[in-house]
Amino acid sequence: MDGFHSLWSKPYMAGKQADEYWMQDYEVLTMILSALMWRKYNGGIRLCADEEARAFIEKLGLAHIWNLGIEEITVPEAVPEKVFWAAGKLYSLKKMQMPAVMVDLDLIIWKDIRNIIKDTDICAIHREGIFPDVYPGKEFFHMKPEYRFDPDWSFEVLPVNTCMLYIADEAFKNYYVDSSITFMENCLETEENLCHMVFAEQRLLAMCAEKQGKQISSFFPGSAQIENQDIFTHLWGYKNILKFNYKEREAFNRKMYDRIVREFPEEETTLKQLSISGL
């Protein structure tokens, strides 16, 4: 089963007013292990990246990590990166041929999941509750006057966490992604507030699936199961600890470095060329 990562530089470049794209060392190590573990157990993996992100990857000598190569993506200026910081994932998904699995850069899948997803329409890690501060009603959104929410979309259906997303059907993928892109390109919001991005990526997926009668399977229906599983590791909020706690970061980097070298000794030379704190 093919997988893909997405790396879009614009949110970082705009936020830092930087001339070059850059990632934290712990993010780089996690990304490397994510790609390598996918290759070990689940198939080939591709990186979708814009020009600046690709230059960063090639400068570090990491392009070979994605054995299916690097696909260039472009996100239109009409999509505000401050609001839709993860839009690169959706434009990457648009270019990929289904069936395939979209994997976040900070998600490591430790086992073969192909038998779990092979007979499903759509598969993700889990559903999410409709918490009003994250998933508000449609009156919350700041949209162009001509934009209309599809009346067949239900705001009652539970959103889907898309840190890992499998879609079997190309036609459905296009319907979902086109719906998300249309939403983003018609948005008038200029300030980050979380709600617009998760609507475009996570809530619309559930709405589109329900409208077309597609079943969404989840690895873990309940949060307790997520706490007691060994299929995946998702850094998510832990990255904020690593960003500000240097001692924690050093320990994490050493753990990641050792795991990569143990599992993939051929990559030790690659890692030694990187600048990693704690090593």
UniProtKB/TrEMBL annotation:
Top-level taxonomic group: Bacteria
Pfam families named in the record: DUF6734
Residue ranges occupied by any DUF6734 domain in the UniProt entry: 4-267
InterPro entries for the chain: DUF6734 (IPR046621)
The protein's name: DUF6734 family protein
